[in-house]
Amino acid sequence: MSTVREFRSDPGAVAPAKAAVREAQSPLEAVQRLIRAACEDLGLPPAVYEYLKEPARVLVVNIPVRMDSGEVRTFTGYRSQHTDVVGPTKGGVRFHPAVTLDEVKALSMWMTMKCAVLGLPYGGAKGGVVCEPRTLSRSELEGLARGYIRAVAGFVGPERDIPAPDVNTNAEIMGWMLDEYSSLRGVVTPALITGKPEVLGGSAGRTGATGRGVVITIREAADRLGLDLRGATAAIQGFGNVGSHTARYLQELGVRVVAISDVRGGVHRRDGIDVEAAIEHTRRYGSVVGLPGTDPIGSDEVLYLPVDILVPAALENQITMANVDQVSARIVCEAANGPTTPEASEALVQRGTFVIPDILANAGGVTVSYFEWVQNLQNFYWPEDEVEARLEDMMVRAFNTVYKVHAQRGVSMRRAAYMVALKRLADAMAARGWL
Ligand SMILES: NC(=O)c1ccc[n+]([C@@H]2O[C@H](COP(=O)([O-])OP(=O)(O)OC[C@H]3O[C@@H](n4cnc5c(N)ncnc54)[C@H](O)[C@@H]3O)[C@@H](O)[C@H]2O)c1
C-alpha cells in the first residue's frame, strides 16, 4: 500500500505549538487549527488539510412536529458528514437549544479524528436538532426523532452514514429512529444506527462504553505517572451517560469521587460520594442537586477542586484561557468533546498537567458502536464480556500508540493523537490516489 511521507525526524518540526496569538473563537476554528498543526508536524502535502478543513457535506433540514396542543412547530436540524476517505461516516445526534451548524461541523471533524486514532473504518459525522428536550413531552420527542430521521433518510444508511446517541438522546430515541427508517425503506435495517436497545440489535455494553473507555485511559495515564488510583480523588462535571458511567467505573477502581455536577448544580463530599446513590437520585429527581450527605457546590466549581483527576463530561469550552489558571488537577481527562480549548490545554500541559485528549479519552463509545454495527451486519451477537475485552484491547492499544508518539516526539498527548489520526487519514488518501 502506498503511504505518504513518514513522521519527519527534524526535531524542529515537532516542537510544541507556539503560543497562539488568539484563542480559537469556536470549536470549528479549534479543530481546524489542530488538524492544520498536525499536518504541519507530519510534513503532509497541503492537499490533506484542504480535504479535511471542512466537511464534505452538510444538510440543514426543517422538521415539522405535531405538538400535543395540535399545532405544528418546525425545528431546525443538521447533519454534517466530514469525510468518507476510510469508510462510511459515523456520529451521534444531539438535541440541545444551543446546537449550531458550526458546532455540528466541528463535532463531525472530531469524530473523524477519533475514529482514525482508534483505527476504525469510519469517517466522522454529527447531527443536531435545535430544541430544548426538557420542554417536550414524550410524544413530541418521538415526533421530533422520527421527523429528523425522515428528513435525512436519503443521506444516511449502514454503508453511508450511521447515527448514534449524543447529548440528550438515548437508546429509546435510536429505537424510534430505526423504526421510522425501516418503515420508510420497507426493510428492517438494524445497522443504520447504533446505541439502540439490545432487543433491536443494540450491542451489549454500549451504554456504559464511553465511560468505560474514559476510565481505561485514566488507568493507563495513572500507571505512566505512578499515581495509585486506590484513594486518588476525582471530580466530574456532567452526570449524564458519560459522567455517570465514568464515576461508577472510577469508584470500582478505588477512586474517591468527591464532586459531581450537572446543569442544575453540583454536590461535594470530601470522603467520596456514593456514586450509585447519585445515579439513583438523578434518575428520580433529574439532578444530583440535593443528594443527601453532600454539600452543594456550583456547576463550574467542580473544575477548580484540588483533585488528582478532573473529568469534564458535559459540553465544549468549559476550560478556556479565562479559567485555566484555577484548574489544579494532575490529570484532566476530556470525556466530553472539546471541553478544553487547545490554548487552555497547552497551558495545562506547560504546567505539568497530563491532559488525555477527547479524541482518545471518549473513543470507547464509537468503538462499541463499531462493534454493534459489525454484529448487525453479521447478524451474530457477542456476549458482554467479549465486547468489554475487545474494547479494553483497542483502547489500550490506541493509548499506547498515542503515548509513544507523545514520549518520542516530545509533544502533548493531544498533538500526538492528531498526528496518529492524520497519518492514517493521509495514508488512506494516498492509497486512493487523492494525493
Ligand atoms: N454518549 C456517548 O456515548 C458519548 C461518546 C463520546 C463523547 N460524548 C460526549 O460526552 C459529553 C456528554 O455526553 P452524554 O452522552 O453524557 O450527554 P448527556 O445528555 O447524557 O449528559 C450531559 C450532562 O452534562 C450536564 N451539563 C450540561 N451543561 C452543563 C454545565 N454547564 N455544567 C455542568 N453540567 C452540565 C447535563 O446536566 C448532563 O448531566 C458530550 O460532549 C458528548 O458529545 C458522548
Automatic annotation (TrEMBL):
<dbReference type="Pfam" id="PF00208">
    <property type="entry name" value="ELFV_dehydrog"/>
</dbReference>
<feature type="domain" description="Glutamate/phenylalanine/leucine/valine/L-tryptophan dehydrogenase C-terminal">
    <location>
        <begin position="203"/>
        <end position="433"/>
    </location>
</feature>
<dbReference type="GO" id="GO:0000166">
    <property type="term" value="F:nucleotide binding"/>
</dbReference>
<protein>
    <recommendedName>
        <fullName>Glutamate dehydrogenase</fullName>
    </recommendedName>
</protein>
<dbReference type="InterPro" id="IPR046346">
    <property type="entry name" value="Aminoacid_DH-like_N_sf"/>
</dbReference>
<keyword id="KW-0520">NAD</keyword>
<dbReference type="GO" id="GO:0004352">
    <property type="term" value="F:glutamate dehydrogenase (NAD+) activity"/>
</dbReference>
<keyword id="KW-0560">Oxidoreductase</keyword>
<dbReference type="InterPro" id="IPR006096">
    <property type="entry name" value="Glu/Leu/Phe/Val/Trp_DH_C"/>
</dbReference>
<dbReference type="InterPro" id="IPR033922">
    <property type="entry name" value="NAD_bind_Glu_DH"/>
</dbReference>
<dbReference type="InterPro" id="IPR014362">
    <property type="entry name" value="Glu_DH"/>
</dbReference>
<feature type="binding site">
    <location>
        <position position="241"/>
    </location>
    <ligand>
        <name>NAD(+)</name>
    </ligand>
</feature>
<dbReference type="GO" id="GO:0006538">
    <property type="term" value="P:L-glutamate catabolic process"/>
</dbReference>
<dbReference type="InterPro" id="IPR006095">
    <property type="entry name" value="Glu/Leu/Phe/Val/Trp_DH"/>
</dbReference>
<feature type="binding site">
    <location>
        <position position="90"/>
    </location>
    <ligand>
        <name>substrate</name>
    </ligand>
</feature>
<dbReference type="InterPro" id="IPR036291">
    <property type="entry name" value="NAD(P)-bd_dom_sf"/>
</dbReference>
<feature type="binding site">
    <location>
        <position position="114"/>
    </location>
    <ligand>
        <name>substrate</name>
    </ligand>
</feature>
<feature type="active site" description="Proton donor">
    <location>
        <position position="126"/>
    </location>
</feature>
<feature type="site" description="Important for catalysis">
    <location>
        <position position="166"/>
    </location>
</feature>
<dbReference type="Pfam" id="PF02812">
    <property type="entry name" value="ELFV_dehydrog_N"/>
</dbReference>
<keyword id="KW-0547">Nucleotide-binding</keyword>
<comment type="similarity">
    <text>Belongs to the Glu/Leu/Phe/Val dehydrogenases family.</text>
</comment>
<feature type="binding site">
    <location>
        <position position="210"/>
    </location>
    <ligand>
        <name>NAD(+)</name>
    </ligand>
</feature>
<dbReference type="InterPro" id="IPR006097">
    <property type="entry name" value="Glu/Leu/Phe/Val/Trp_DH_dimer"/>
</dbReference>
<feature type="binding site">
    <location>
        <position position="369"/>
    </location>
    <ligand>
        <name>substrate</name>
    </ligand>
</feature>
